Amino acid sequence: MTHRTNALPWIALVAVYFLWGSTYLGIRVAVATIPPYLMTGVRYAVAGLLLLALQWTFSKEKPAMPTPAQLRRIAVIAVLLLVVGNGLLCLAETRVESGTAALLIASSPIFMVLLDAVRVRKVPTPVAIAGIVVGSFGVAALVGKSTGHADALMAALILFSSFSWAAGSVYAGSEGEHHPLTASLEMLIGGTLSILVGILIGELGHVRLDAIAPASLWGMLWLIVGGAMVGYSAFAYTVRMLPTPTVATYGYVNPVVAVILGALLLHEPVTWRIVAGGAAVVVSVALILLGNRQMSEEAVASG
Q1: What total of structural domains would you count in the chain?
Q2: How far apart, in whole angstroms, are the C-alpha atoms of residue 274 and residue 272?
Q3: Model pTM?
């Protein structure tokens, strides 16, 4: 049972690797005919309600509600991750190609490792730093062919969303515990606030039900089930169970998955750039994991 429990965070991390690799395409398709913040809000509000209902229905023991202190942390994390982090990404993808978004969002592992280093007041190991550098070059190679001419403001919004997501992840990781209702409540709170943001910026006036394309609805459905209910739940669990540098590797693997899906589903060509970039990403993950292990061993030795 202990071995199985120890394996669960890694299984969740692998799920984040693959499920979130598909969300760039899902977002791009969904926001084509659905206003971005309303799409984000409805996506997470529905996912949070469904997940909460499933937990409440099938749990042998009804989970206790979080304490006021826990609810405050959940609300802060929901704002950083979902309202700012994912909301700005969806807004930017109305004008920025998904490949460009993937490249810019790949900066989140760098922010995560650096912010975590500030939190614990310890410089990352040279091996982990090398992993960050190699991974950055790898992601750049993977999506460099599709960067296009991104709007400067939208690109800045994506970078800010990446920083916000990293800050929320590090803050969640510092919690050291995982309440059973964390993911569902974060999505419910984040979704509700995102809907309010959408209304405040005037998106409600741009909703035309008859103009929403079926592809956008399918994209949103996948974002609700695969990206939010399963993927976000897995992330909310693993970010509290595994070291931040380890969790941060998802940001380098997601673009690899996105490229593979593009080749399989959209018949995009697989070039030498993609092969070289994918290899660099795999190496970067190994280096960051190795660097994190070295830091853990040094901490044990010094303690």
Answers
A1: 1
A2: 5
A3: 0.80
